[in-house]
Amino acid sequence: MSVEDTLFGIHGKALALRSQRLSLLASNIANASTPNYKARDIDFEAALRDATRQAGKTPTDVAQAASAAMGYRVPLQPSLDGNTVELSTEQTLFAENAVKYRTTLSFLEGRINTINRALKGE
Question: How far is it, in rounded angstroms, from Cα 50 to Cα 56?
């Protein structure tokens, strides 16, 4: 177990995974009109589970966990040009993930402030 895992627990890895998911969702949105573009997403729960695996199993690197949990989105209504991006779905998922990213970041900032105060003897 690394020092980072001890200090930040699951939240450091969750932040890294949320960041990767934000990039992927932004890519989907940017390619909404690209013919034959296939929308992708990360199964966040599966990736986090792999990245923080317990019970004698070695945790996976965050990037490996994200890659293993990545898949293509099945559209509700496919377009004629083969593009599977549904803009409203992508925007909703992006906004939801951004809020969760900010929440995780706020928790980590609080944790770091607590550690700084403890080190200063406050």
Answer: 13
Residue with tokens 């377009």: 79
The strand pair at 40-42 and 70-72 is best described as antiparallel
Tens of pLDDT, residue by residue over 53-93, are: 754 456 678 899 999 999 999 999 889 999 999 999 999 99
pTM: 0.84
Residue identified by tokens 């573009």 is 37
Query: In the numeric block, which tokens belong to residue 115?
Result: 């550690």
Strand ranges (E), 1-122: 40-42, 70-72
CA atoms within 13 A on the CB side of 106: 6
